[in-house]
Amino acid sequence: MSGKQAKLTVGDQSIDLPVYSGTLGPDVIDVKDVLAKGFFTYDPGFMATASCESKITFIDGDKGILLHRGYPIEQLATQSTYEEVCYLLLNGELPNQAQMDDFRSRVKSHTMVHEQLQFFYRGFRRDAHPMAVMCGVVGALSAFYHDSLDIRNPEHRQISAIRLIAKMPTIAAMCFKYSVGQPFIYPKNELDYSSNFLRMMFATPCDDYEVNPILARAMDRIFILHADHEQNASTSTVRMAGSTDANPFACIAAGIAALWGPSHGGANEAVLRMLSEIGSVKNVDDFVRRVKDKSDGTKLMGFGHRVYKNFDPRAKVMKQTCDEVLSALGIQDPQLELAMKLEEIALNDEYFVSRKLYPNVDFYSGIILKAIGIPLNLFTVIFALGRTPGWIAHWQEMIANPYKIARPRQLYTGAVQRDYVGLQQR
Ligand code: CMC
Hints:
Number of strands: 6
Mean pLDDT: 95
Structural class: mainly alpha
Strand content: 5-15%
Bound molecules: carboxymethyl coenzyme *A
Distance between the termini: 58 Å
Shape: globular
Strand order of the largest sheet: 1-2-3
Low-confidence stretches: none
Number of helices: 17
């Protein structure tokens, strides 16, 4: 409680509403009591609605701050590892060495997928979008791990969490291998998480793959930068599915489906498609003109965010990583030059300035992924892989605490009750 009270007046009725304070962020008005007075609240797109209480991630969109369990994303991205961030998100604290070793070894013991799972891949067309494949395969995990599906059992929840974190790189790499017609590559547990993923992506049975530590570090950083982002669309989807007591694999599959859209995780793929469409710096002005013309329906992909009305802090680290990776690899990517020109114009243009539209995490990630050799249609799969610990942490947090099935109300504007008329009378 904040000690404050809100008062809502509707006609001649007055409703007292409690106000809660978190540790950070705006106070929250508890609107539950309006139901007893015969009202619903209305907030399409959940613009101002806190759907739950959470201790995992905090964002201050005006200041461009992102904290996981209190730690700034910039520090985690530059000083930590993805596995450590997974532990932090799931457990609330950074691990000591023994805890880290134990977590790593548990993850490693679950990196393989059931051999039977490969037949699921074979049911898909080779040219299927990898997100379609990933969605199906992750949902199918619930048909394989019956021994850990009791959501009321904390040990089952733990094993499912570890299984998901361990198997996502294997599943993602298998999506790629299937699409190019190469044999699946088994995980190699002596490697760290990101190196293992890169090897499963790029090794073949004929040629092993020497992991470039620069690329492995960049991959790890990309995973960290995607690891969680509080109650975004896909995480809220995971929570919503979880609130029905669905199993964790089904919930994460629901999250993957929600992530796929170009307004959310699909934006990283859309950014590179946009850069290819623009083609060269000389076309940037014309493209920006189209974006500003609402009738054209073109968006500047990788720009704007529901919460950030300032620089997305993840975009800053992403840009820095992009520079480091390209210079370490000696790559001069004209698309980076194009992206920088686009950013420069947008940041000075009244349309974007007045709407507080800044580059988001997806603006530069595609250029790094391309430099690593990740194909365009796998970009959103990488986002899903990185976001998995966040989804699971939120699902765990919800299941371990009292919750209710998520069941929003509506403002009904359809037909009022009327009588059915037989076909011959219509
Ligand atoms: N290009 C052009 N105009 C934009 C853009 C954009 N990328 N984003 C927002 N606007 C305009 C929008 O048309 C609206 O203008 P007006 O007030 O004149 O109607 C105004 O800015 C406010 O935008 P909104 O659509 O009401 O904002 P929202 O919070 O509902 O949408 C968003 C947020 C991320 C869906 C949107 O900014 C967008 O579609 N961006 C491009 C896609 C993208 O990069 N998505 C990745 C988000 S970060 C990764 C993740 O966490 O998912």
